[in-house]
Each structure stands twice: as structure tokens, then as C-alpha cells.
Amino acid sequence: MQAQVERSKETTIPLTANNAIPEDASVPTLPPTPSRIPHIVHQSYSTTFLPASFTTFRNSCIHLSPSWEFKRWTNTDNRELVATEYPHLLDLYDSYNDKIKRIDMVRYLYLHKYGGVYIDLDMACLNPFSDVLDAFEDKFLVASQFIKKVDYANAFIASPPDHPIFGNDLRKTSFHS
Asked: Which range is the signal sequence, renumbered to this chain (predicted)?
């Protein structure tokens, strides 16, 4: 099987072992293509049991965006994500005295690692995610919680994985307690 390397819009050259670019060759750097917001929704609750009110809100989103993947994270899942993917943040994560501080941290880690949408379980959906997000395919989005006053909240955030807003790789970045 041959991989295809697009050199220009007019020419496509099959890449084989015989015509591979030598390691020491000067290869032009192509501009990165914008990454889109993956169709995955992250939500977090302490256990696998979800209260009825949260189930109703969550189901409103699933009903309107049935082709999207919905991932529900538990406290155990969250700690495992930090321990596995961001081990330098584990001591800080464990040091938080309030559960909400840990949740606030991991919602950004979900988006850094996987991209997609984080939405709190106490928020209902009124429109399909694609209706809103597909127009902003490479953006980091955050919802304002007030109509007249600009005050951003992290109850609804969306981004492609590894978005530049995260700065340097979060695997090397510290949060502050």
C-alpha cells in the first residue's frame, strides 16, 4: 500500500521506499491546517450514577446531537487522566481541597488532550452542537453567563485538541492552586 503525499494542488506523488525524502534533505514547512472541534462532549460527575435532573439535561444534548460521542468522566477517570497524561500535575490535582477545583482543572485537560466540548451537567441544550460549533472549527470557545455583562464561565467550553490558547504543552505547564 502506498501513502500519498500532496506536493501541490496539481501533482500527487506516491511515496514509496525508493523515492522517500532523505532525512538530511531540506523540506519546506507547510502551514498547519486548522484543526476542527471534534464531535465529542465531555461531562463529569463523581460516580457512574447520575441524578434524574442531570440525566434530563444530558439527554437534551444527546437528543439534539445524536451523532456526537458523549463521554462521562467520573472522579476516578479524572484522576487517572491526570496521572497518565499529566503526571506533573498530579500533586497539585490531589492537593485541591475542593472537588470543584479538580473538576475545573480537568475540563481543560479534556479539551487539551481530546478536544471537543465540555458542558456542565446542569446545562440543557436548545440547539444541536454542530449548528453553533462547526462555523468555528479552529477556535477556542467559551460561553458568557450573562446577556448584558461580559463574564465568562467554564460551564461551556469548546476547542480542537492542543489549541494554542493552552500555550505551551500542558504536559509541561503548571496550574496555580
From this structure: none
Could you list the residue range(s) of the whole structural domain that residue 108 is in? 40-172
Question: From the CB of residue 170, how many other CB atoms can be counted at a distance below 10 Å?
Answer: 19
pTM of the model: 0.74
Query: Which residue, among 65, 57, 36, has the nearest Cα to 131 in the 3D structure?
Result: 65
Q: Which of 136, 96, 100 is nearest to 116 (CA)?
A: 136
Tens digit of pLDDT per residue, the chain (177 long)? 333 333 333 333 343 444 444 455 454 443 444 468 999 999 999 999 999 999 999 999 999 999 999 999 999 999 999 999 999 999 999 999 999 999 999 999 999 999 999 999 999 999 999 988 888 777 887 776 666 666 677 899 999 998 887 766 555 555 554
* Domains: count for the chain: 1
